[in-house]
Amino acid sequence: MLPLMFRYATAQGVLVVVSTLQLSRVSSIVMLVAYIGYIIFQLKTHMQIFEAYPGDEEKEEEEKAVIGFWSGFSWLVGMTLIIIALFSEYAAGTITTN
Question: Which PANTHER family match (predicted)?
């Protein structure tokens, strides 16, 4: 979104490819640093969520898996690829029609 706004903010006919690429990279680095800071903040301020209560080990019973690891893994990969394929076809179709 920022590169698009940057392109419309400049004068017509000015080549802004290099500036747009730099802006895109800088904004992605800023968002990555903000995300890492958010994760660190959450892990520091919400430690009680990740700590085990004393005595919980005896109460927990081992749950039996409904499906196996490889079955679950294959379903996850298959559905992910199908969903990505459908959405990418939809996005490409909307771009080419306009």
Answer: VACUOLAR CALCIUM ION TRANSPORTER, VACUOLAR CATION_PROTON EXCHANGER
**Residue reference for tokens 């490819």:** 17
Q: What is the pTM of this model?
A: 0.45
Is residue 91 situated within a structural domain?
A: yes
Is pLDDT at 2 greater than 70 in this prediction? no
Convert 32-44 into a string of H (helix), E (strand) and C (coil): HHHHHHHHHHHHH
Residue spans of beta strands (DSSP E) within 3-58: none
Diameter of the chain measured on Cα atoms: 71
CA separation, residue 38 to residues 25, 27, 32, 56 (Å): 20, 16, 10, 29
Say if residue 5 is in the same domain as residue 45: yes
**Which tokens is 20 given?**
């747009």
Label residue 6 exposed, middle or buried (CB < 10 Å: 0-12, 13-18, 19+).
middle
pLDDT in tens, 37-67: 999 999 888 887 777 666 656 666 777 878 8
